[in-house]
Write a structure and sequence with these properties.
Elements (H helix, E strand, L loop, with lengths): L2 E3 L6 H14 L4 E3 L23 H15 L3 H27 L5 E4 L5 E3 H4 L11 H15 L4 H16 L11 E3 L4 E3 L6 H16 L13 H14 L12 H24 L2
Parallel strand pairs: 1-2
Antiparallel strand pairs: 3-4, 5-6
Length: 275
């Protein structure tokens, strides 16, 4: 004989009394069966709101605004905008000076012997760049870093600001290698990447070094060829077969350890920092 009871759910006191009465007081095996919980009724899920797709024009505007706001920090964007504005002001000053001297139609002669008209030169730092834009950037660098005596930091900042200004002007049109098509009078690629601008950058860098100018002294990036030469020299000084020898001399151990640490650090660092 045994007793089976079905006490209410969540009633531990009743279950305890029933078990004591049956098992302890009367010696009758007593089992309390807990009633299974009824399945809860799920509330119907609220349909997720699906917004209608935005127009392509709205998405394009949002993309442009996002790149403008988040692509660079505010300080960098403001600094670049300042250099572009000063470059445009310099163009206006040059044109006003030329016109004040009575040169209303011709400003100068370019490398091909063609006239540089004031109305064309006025647009060198506007949208789109024209055939004189690269020349204008070169001359602006000369004005700021040779005539006015500013250093390499100013040179780098002007170059970076104008280069980014043209890159962001019309998607991919003014990115990459510079090219001027005389037959269509159009520019493709970045005027800051032109040979004349790159040559001027190198000249100003050499000028800064020759004058012993202070400022930034960033190390040049190491090439893989440089790293190989360094490792070849290390192996020549500390051959790899030394690792299989039992070295007991403290000086030699220290010498080998330095070379091994250098090899591990340079190779690991090169992989990590150039990924």
């Amino acid at each position: 004989m045994f007793i089976i009871t079905v006490p209410p759910r969540n009633a531990p006191d009743i279950r305890k009394e029933v078990k004591q009465w049956g098992n302890l007081l009367n010696g009758v095996p007593t089992q309390c069966v807990v009633q299974a919980a009824l399945p809860s009724k799920k509330c119907p899920s609220k349909p997720r709101r699906v917004d209608p797709p935005s127009s392509l024009g709205a998405l394009r505007a949002a993309a442009d605004a996002g790149k403008k706001e988040w692509m660079y920090s505010k300080n960098t964007s403001d600094a670049y905008a300042g250099y572009v504005k000063r470059a445009q002001q310099w163009v206006s000053q040059v044109i006003n000076t030329a016109r004040g001297a009575g040169e209303s139609t011709l400003l100068d002669i370019d490398d091909n012997g063609r006239p540089i008209k004031c109305e064309e030169f006025a647009l060198v730092f506007e949208k789109p760049p024209n055939r004189h834009s690269a020349h204008a950037l070169e001359l602006f660098l000369v004005q700021k870093c040779v005539t006015e005596g500013n250093g390499k930091s100013t040179c780098d900042s002007i170059y970076s600001a104008l280069k980014k200004y043209w890159e962001m002007m019309d998607n991919d049109t003014y990115r990459g290698s510079y090219c001027y098509d005389e037959s269509t009078d159009t520019v493709t690629g970045n005027p800051a990447s032109s040979a004349r601008v790159q040559d001027m950058l190198q000249a100003l860098k050499n000028k800064s070094r020759a004058n012993g100018a202070g400022g930034r002294n960033h190390a040049e990036a190491m090439l893989i060829e440089d790293l190989r030469k360094l490792l070849d020299w290390s192996i020549l000084q500390c051959p790899s077969d030394w690792l299989n020898k039992e070295l007991t001399d403290v000086v030699t151990l220290h010498f080998v350890a330095k070379h091994l640490m250098m090899r591990a650090f340079t190779t690991s660092g090169f992989v990590i920092w150039t990924r």
